[in-house]
Description:
single chain, alpha/beta, disordered C terminus
Amino acid sequence: GTDPWRGGLLLAQHIGAWIGGAAVAPAGGLSAETLFRDRHVVELGAGSACLPSMALAAACSHGEGVDLRPRTLVASDGVDETVSAMRRNVAENRLDNSVRVEHIDWNRLPAKKDDTNFVPADTIMFADCVYNEEGASALYDAIQTMLKPGGNVIGVLPDFRVGLDSFEKAMKSGGFCPTIIPRMEKELLIGPNSEKHSTEKFLCSGGGG
């Protein structure tokens, strides 16, 4: 995995547009302020690139007007090598003061939940995290365990992949109300502040994800 996944790129672009002031709301009556401002935000299965988390941190640091910075922003993965690569990427992009990298194993969530230091997430993000039935079940369990009541989930999934159907059914059975977020036009994804920060690029080393 030396290249970022497409879903992560899409989610990062949309987050940048929401924070950057594009004239669109995420969907379902939500806003970037509702999802991120002073919230505990966790990205699950972030991979080595963790682009959505880094995009959120970078966009908020450049934001003008309303301060939309999360209270805490955690990028996580369950593979040690990937977590190490993610930590290097966050540091290389000088976002280690804004993004906290954690190892979160979806198959060991009960111990995490029983931890007295456990803080449920207000918003959970993920992209391209479903590859099979087992992974779909594990992702759903992670969301149910880590999300606070009334919290929000933002996910990007491909059209066709094993496990998608069961994941979507599990989420609906669990009381989640899905809202499809339309793809934005290129002009909106670029955002009004793109020229100002056009020379700033994310640096990404290799690693799984």
